[in-house]
Amino acid sequence: MAEVMANPAGSGLRRALPLLLPAYVWLILAIFLPLSAMVFFSFMSDMPLSGGDWSFTLANYQAFFSTGIYVRLLGSSLRLGLEVTFWCLLIGFPAAYALAKVLKGRSREAVFLLVILPFWSNGLVRIFSWAMVLREGGILDTFLNAILPFKINIDLMYSYPAVIIGLVHSYVPYVVLTSYLSLQAIDDSLIEAARSLGASRWRVLRRVILPLALPGIVAGAVLIFVPVVGSFMEPRILGGRTGTFYGTVIEDQFVAVFNWPLGAALSFILLAVVLAILATASPIMRRAQ
């Protein structure tokens, strides 16, 4: 008993180890080993599976800086990530507030079901559904021409807005869920006290609700920005030629060109850039917690 009281941290770690071990074994097998293999590939001149001669080289990383197209595509992907994150926050936070503070009972359950509904369908199904909506002669075009007295031509397929729409539809539930958890934790008496003291709705939102909900907002933004920067499926299908981004180039290196070393190098450059952005924003994230 005296030893346990003398070293409670060590005792707690021993008790938690059987619970933590499966998760850490899975992380090692499913994440760290593949990443280690990709690091190894990124420094190779050719794949050993191709049967050709190979050696260790830095040419794959040098290609990123010597070829301007990769830098431009990375900038376009970062801009895409910021725009999609912005629209997801603009759409998702009001929905989360309505779920947490306005709706009650069955109406909340029904709306919550609609929010998480995209998670129940395959990503390709969602994307091709938008293709049927946004193309010329599609669902949106037919509906508008049926109700309007004049004929219009809605054809957003293979455009930048189509990519934005598809990505926002895929990732906006993350903002809704994370913001909902933060808003649900805010005591309603704080909002009522601010209103009773004469604060306007806008002032209550700006001085009370947003600061307290900031952890959920930041978490949702990170969950969206990181995968969107490297996304390739939505830009490929909905964007066509205009949907060429950094993620689609990486996919081409692995699938079409079979240049795994260059694809691995481009992937780790993207990972380094994203980690640098998160490290720069970490003071804001720490203050939000």
UniProtKB/TrEMBL annotation:
Highest rank taxon of the organism: Bacteria
Keywords: Cell membrane, Membrane, Transmembrane, Transmembrane helix, Transport
Protein's cellular compartments: Cell membrane
Keyword Transmembrane helix annotated: yes
PROSITE patterns hit by this protein: ABC_TM1
Main location: membrane
Transmembrane intervals: 23-44, 80-99, 111-133, 158-183, 204-226, 260-281
Domain ABC transmembrane type-1: 74-281
Bilayer topology: Multi-pass membrane protein
Membership in a protein family: Belongs to the binding-protein-dependent transport system permease family. CysTW subfamily.
PANTHER family registered for this protein in UniProt: INNER MEMBRANE ABC TRANSPORTER PERMEASE PROTEIN YDCU-RELATED, INNER MEMBRANE ABC TRANSPORTER PERMEASE PROTEIN YDCU-RELATED-RELATED
This protein's name: ABC transporter permease
